[in-house]
Amino acid sequence: MRKLRGAEVVRITGARQSLADDVRGRQRRYIISMSIRTVAVILAALLWNVERPVAIVALALGVLLPYVSVVIANGGREGAKPLPTAFVPAPVRPAIGPPLEGTVMDPEPAEPVNDPRGRTS
Predict the structure, then answer these.
(1) Residue 114's beta-bridge partner residues?
(2) pTM of the full predicted structure?
(3) How far apart are CA 57 and CA 59, in angstroms?
């Protein structure tokens, strides 16, 4: 593919992720966070008589994580990015570019040009 300098890349389609993939991803996030919650509750029970401050933090994590997990899992497709516009403006290019190096230019006009003061060149 040809690289365009300074050109913005535009997606051809604004197709979103399929519904099945979206649900699968949300289920995966929910199961991971519930696994972390289970470990936190077990850790709180094991450390209650050994290290009480760590056990309290783990218990707080075990209590708060289900709410956060449900909110994250239910926050589905609403936050999707807007679709790109269908029309992309064409890049602006000059109509006539400067002469290439090495081209022969005629330095003198073919006919004499009249000067407003009456002289010819």
Answers:
(1) 120
(2) 0.49
(3) 5
Could you list the beta-strand ranges (E) of 11-106.
none
By 3-state DSSP, what share of the chain in percent is helix, strand and coil, each rounded to 5? 45, 0, 55
Q: How many CB atoms lie within 10 A of CB 58?
A: 22
pLDDT of residue 45: 92
pLDDT tens by residue, 85-105: 666 677 777 777 666 776 665
Residue 61, token pair as written in the block: 């994590």
10 Å CB burial of residue 101 (0-12, 13-18, 19+) is exposed
Q: How many CA atoms lie within 13 A of 61 on its CB side?
A: 19
CA gap 56, 45 in Å, rounded: 10
| The two structure tokens encoding residue 52 | 């009480």
Phi, psi of 85 (to 5 degrees): -70, 155
